[in-house]
Amino acid sequence: EAQVTQNPRYLITVTGKKLTVTCSQNMNHEYMSWYRQDPGLGLRQIYYSMNVEVTDKGDVPEGYKVSRKEKRNFPLILESPSPNQTSLYFCASRSFTSGSYNEQFFGPGTRLTVL
Amino acid sequence: SQKIEQNSEALNIQEGKTATLTCNYTNYSPAYLQWYRQDPGRGPVFLLLIRENEKEKRKERLKVTFDTTLKQSLFHITASQPADSATYLCALDVKRGFKTIFGAGTRLFVKA
């Protein structure tokens, strides 16, 4: 089954404790992206990756890091989480064919609480 | 400033009617525009994508229009059903599709 998986699905942590949220896709998509969703603000893009070893900032990159060492994985790293990073996080992937991008496939989400 | 706005936070309609959702944007030149459905606590699910050189796209009971002059997209669900109740998100793809900007969404309630 074609899918995007994220782990963990739920995480409660404390300020300053480094954490990683994993994202994996089995569709051989070139493009992957991370979003956060907050009430009233909608989905906001954190980072995206056009291919292996190629990443760029979205609209809200502060406090986050990413890496793309393999095509299928795109982990999101919070080196020193703060309470304002409490949010619902989504990973997504999409293919690129005939010179344009196609629809995005989203993971199930990771609900993060930073105390 | 750059903005993307979706009409009203919530839309209530009767079963069988056509729901029309609006997405307006300013100061963007999107390559594509997408519509997604999102249920509470779940990830968005893709519905339709329309490119800048297309005026209209249809898929079963769904229709989307894209007017780059008005900077507006309309999303229609015909013969609506209670199962269509969800939040619908409009998304612009800019920078040749590398960046995606989402609207805050419109919650649709379809009453039986």
Secondary structure: elements and pairs:
The complex is a heterodimer of chains A (115) and B (112).
Chain A: E1 4-7, E2 10-13, E3 19-25, E4 31-38, E5 42-51, E6 54-57, E7 65-66, E8 76-78, E9 87-94, E10 96-97, E11 100-101, E12 105-106, E13 110-114
Parallel strand pairs in A: 2-13
Antiparallel strand pairs in A: 1-3, 3-8, 4-5, 4-9, 5-6, 7-8, 9-12, 9-13, 10-11
Chain B: E1 3-6, E2 10-14, E3 19-26, E4 32-38, E5 45-51, E6 56-59, E7 62-67, E8 72-77, E9 86-94, E10 99-102, E11 106-111
Parallel strand pairs in B: 2-11
Antiparallel strand pairs in B: 1-3, 3-8, 4-5, 4-9, 6-7, 7-8, 9-10, 9-11
Could you explain the architecture of this structure?
The complex is a heterodimer of chains A (115) and B (112). Chain A is mainly beta. Helices cover 0% and strands 53% of the residues of chain A. Chain A contains no helices and 13 strands. In chain A, strands 2, 4, 5, 6, 9, 12 and 13 form a 7-stranded mixed beta sheet that branches. A 4-stranded antiparallel beta sheet of chain A has the order 1-3-8-7, with no helix packed on it. Chain A is globular and about 45 Å long. The N and C termini of chain A lie far apart (36 Å). Chain B is an all-beta fold and 112 residues long. Chain B contains no helices and 11 strands. In chain B, the strands form 2 sheets. In chain B, strands 2, 4, 5, 9, 10 and 11 form a 6-stranded mixed beta sheet that branches. Chain B has a 5-stranded antiparallel beta sheet with strand order 1-3-8-7-6, with no helix packed on it. The N and C termini of chain B lie far apart (41 Å). In chain B, 35% of the residues are buried. The A-B interface holds A 4, 31, 33, 35, 40-45, 48, 50, 56, 58-59, 90, 92, 96, 100-109 and B 31-32, 34, 36, 41-46, 49, 51, 89, 91, 93, 97-105.
